[in-house]
Amino acid sequence: MPEGRRAYVVGDVHGCLDRLVSLHWQIARDLAEFPVRDSVLVHLGDYVDRGPDSAGVLWLLGGTLAAPVTRRVDLRGNHELLMFDALQGNLAAASLWLDNGGETTLQSYGVRETSAVRPDDWLAHVPAAHLSYIAGLDLMHREGNYLFVHAGIRPGVPIRAQKPEDLMWIREPFLSDRAPRDVVVVHGHTPRPEVEVFENRIGIDTGAVMGGALTCLVLEDDRMRLLSA
Q1: How many beta carbons lie within 10 A of that of residue 182, not counting itself?
Q2: Handedness of CA 45, 184, 144, 156 (dihedral sign)
Q3: Full DSSP string of 38-85
Q4: Phi/psi of residue 27, each to 5°?
Q5: What 3-state DSSP class applies to 39?
Q6: Which residues pair with 224 in a beta bridge?
Q7: Over the stretch 192-214, which tens digit does the pLDDT of each residue have?
Q8: Domains of the chain
Q9: Cα–Cα dist 55/122, whole Å
Q10: Measured between alpha carbons, how far is 197 from 9 in angstroms, rounded to an integer?
Q11: What is the pTM of this model?
């Protein structure tokens, strides 16, 4: 990381509002104890689905956070993509969304009937501000020698030529690729029991919605440490 800059990078939330709030307070305490000139908070996406309070997570991210960082970047995950497309009336996306945890998201908005694909009915329950928030999410972000994306990148393809579907969905051949890169890719999307650290990538989805921790990777200079909830 550039001198005087620190990044706080949060993995897949999946509706676990209480853990996200806990991490934001931990980040606030960390900044109070270890001040830095420039701090950036990066959320890697997948804020919704499967967990108990996706609506609450989007309300939090759309408002004022407890963590007093200098800058903040929120990335789009594949679950935000499914939610957005479903609520725009894409029936194929809506069906896929229900099969991948969308039902719990709808329930968090007060939708009682989720057994049938009814995007028009669902849309009436979701605030327009939440859809605007999702529409404005970034797909990638770079700080120093780190590239932050939700899922990963396509090996052998220049960063500027990466396709959105790979940035939000890819697993292989990205996960098994060990070739050196100009950047270290920090990503979520693929849950693991512990943070994965390789020379060319760091995976921080530790399965919060599956009973694991919600992880925050802290990057400063050439060091890394972890916060977790």
Answers
A1: 9
A2: negative
A3: EEEEEE-S--SSSSS-HHHHHHHHTS--SS--SEEEEBPPHHHHHHHH
A4: -65, -40
A5: strand
A6: 219
A7: 999 999 999 999 999 999 999 99
A8: 5-74+139-145+154-228 (3.60.21.10)
A9: 13
A10: 14
A11: 0.97
